[in-house]
Structure formats: C-alpha cells, structure tokens
C-alpha cells in the first residue's frame, strides 16, 4: 500500500514538472494559487505544520524559507500505482493545476499565525552560488532553517500533499513528503515518504 501511494505521489510531482503544457490556466498567469484553492485553506495547513513542530519542522529554528527551495522528488517507480488508490483522476488533475503554480507561491508573514523570520528563496539561492550548501546554512542560520512547500489539495480539500523539513548544516537536517487528512481536530499525517538525502 505504501509503495502504491509513493508511486501516485511521484506521478503527480513528475506531471506537475512538465513544461510542455499548452494550457497555462488564468490562475498561473495571475501567479495566484488562491484562485484554485483559497488562501485561507492553504495557510490553515501551513500554520498547522508550524504549530506542530516536529515532524514537519524544527520548532527551535525561527527561520522559514518563503518558497519551495528545491524540487524534491520521490522515486519514479512508486508513483503511478499510488495515484490509483488514494486519489481519483479528478484529484490528480486538480493537484497538477496547483503544482504548476508552486514556483510562484511565496509564504507571507501576514497569513502566518506565528512570527517567523522569512528568508527569500530567491535570495538564498543566489547567495549559495559558489558555496558549500551545508556550511553556508550552518554559518548564516546557526539555529537552522525550515521549509514548507505549497500544499497540494484533493478536490474535497480533505487530503493534501506537502513537503516539509529542516536544514542545519552539512549532513544535518531532515525532510519528507507528507500526505495528510483533515479531521475535526486538525490535520493528521497518514503517510510519510522520507527524503533519502538526510
């Protein structure tokens, strides 16, 4: 079952990365993910992750990257079948629409329920050029730096997929893809796919 979900997740992510889609939707042109999923729904999940701390982020680090810093991937073998189990074809199409907006999504302080030192994704990567990634992070952000991707929601908004993690230096940190389900008490993790990087 876990392999099927990983296959589904990979399928969604790979298709979302394709650039030969002729149809770029009005939402993409406006760079506004809130036109597909309302901004309140997006930030309720992001704020939930921030308030939970681990396993999503390291609560000690107050630094948060404002965008998706790296296009994280899941093993290609495990994607296709997973999409056939948890998410319907309509869900996958809906998630792919959202995925195309992900490069334009930036977390803003005004929607966060807790104060965070937002670090510009673009600025961070321009400063990283020519430096050892881990050593740079450790020197510039001694307490570490968190990241949470733009969540991708199912049509019902009852399920979402996101990547979250933490970096603290060379070979230091963690990250994973999470499939979460909405409950009356908040969001529960139903599957975790850890990054092999950390």
Q: Major sheet, described briefly?
A: 5 strands, antiparallel
Decide which structural class fits the backbone. Answer: alpha+beta
> How far apart are the termini?
24 Å
| H and E order | HHHEHHEHHEEEEE
- What is Rg? 16 Å
Bin the strand percentage: 15-25%
Mean pLDDT: 76
Q: Which descriptor suits the 3D outline?
A: globular
Helix content: 25-40%
Number of strands: 7
Q: In DSSP terms, counting alpha (H) and pi (I) runs of 4 or more, how many helices?
A: 7
**Poorly predicted regions:** 3-31, 72-81
Commentary on this structure:
Helix 1 (about 1-15) packs across helix 5 (about 90-100). The chain has helices at about 1-15, 25-30, 40-50, 80-85, 90-100, 120-130, 135-140; strands spanning about 65, 115-120, 145-150, 150-155, 160-170, 170-185, 185-195. The strands form two sheets. Strands 3, 4, 5, 6 and 7 form a five-stranded antiparallel beta sheet that branches. A two-stranded parallel ribbon has the order 1-2. The longest helix has 16 residues, at about 1-15. It is α+β, with helices and mostly antiparallel strands and about 200 residues long.
Features:
198 residues; disordered N terminus; alpha+beta; two-stranded parallel sheet; five-stranded antiparallel β-sheet
């Amino acid at each position: 079952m876990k392999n099927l979900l990983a296959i589904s997740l990979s399928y969604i992510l790979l298709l979302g990365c394709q650039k030969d889609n002729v149809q770029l939707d009005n939402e993409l042109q406006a760079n506004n993910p809130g036109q597909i999923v309302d901004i309140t729904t997006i930030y309720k999940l992001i704020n939930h992750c921030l308030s939970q701390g681990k396993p999503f982020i390291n609560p000690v680090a107050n630094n948060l990257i404002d965008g998706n810093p790296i296009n994280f991937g899941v093993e290609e073998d495990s994607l296709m079948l997973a999409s056939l189990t948890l998410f319907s074809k309509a869900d996958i199409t809906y998630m792919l629409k959202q995925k195309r907006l992900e490069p334009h999504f930036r977390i803003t302080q005004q929607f966060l329920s807790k104060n965070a030192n937002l670090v510009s994704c673009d600025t961070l990567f321009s400063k990283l050029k020519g430096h050892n990634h881990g050593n740079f992070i450790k020197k510039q952000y001694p307490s570490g730096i968190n990241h949470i991707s733009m969540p991708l929601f199912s049509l019902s908004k009852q399920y979402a997929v996101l990547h979250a993690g933490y970096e603290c230096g060379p070979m230091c940190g963690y990250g994973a893809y999470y499939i979460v389900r909405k409950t009356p008490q908040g969001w529960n993790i139903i599957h975790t796919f850890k990054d092999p990087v950390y």
